[in-house]
């Protein structure tokens, strides 16, 4: 949306917008290991004022004079046209600031597409998609995938109908022994390194 290419023609204005987005992502790095409610509170405290400041700047004469045909003008137009959608993550600590993680997951679909041509039928394809969704959800919650799937499938076959209890995040809280701690530590280390890089850039 707003990248280094936008600096051409309006370097001062583009640098101002980029600085705000760097600050917003620095907040997300800090919030990465927090529970959802604490992440939302942090966003309310630190990210909301940045968005309000950015929104006020978009209404200034400086911003409105930017030509809409250039890359920076197009980026500002995107900001204005998708303002509410871009800020939606502020209302829910479970939501990410962007969809980068989802796009990375979609690459798995693209890589496996040729293998799934021979899934057999539409019904089999739907069941396969459901199964892959369960696996991906377990991975994202740092669970032992085999332990999670076996318990869920056993309970479903036994007649379990309380599907809320089978959600990976709910199941995770009930089965701490099935959490792959090394994945939690990897995620924490990655967040710490990312936060350190942000601090170096803003220093």
Automatic annotation (TrEMBL):
<feature type="domain" description="Transposase IS66 central">
    <location>
        <begin position="13"/>
        <end position="126"/>
    </location>
</feature>
<dbReference type="InterPro" id="IPR004291">
    <property type="entry name" value="Transposase_IS66_central"/>
</dbReference>
<dbReference type="InterPro" id="IPR052344">
    <property type="entry name" value="Transposase-related"/>
</dbReference>
<protein>
    <submittedName>
        <fullName>Transposase IS66 family protein</fullName>
    </submittedName>
</protein>
<dbReference type="Pfam" id="PF03050">
    <property type="entry name" value="DDE_Tnp_IS66"/>
</dbReference>
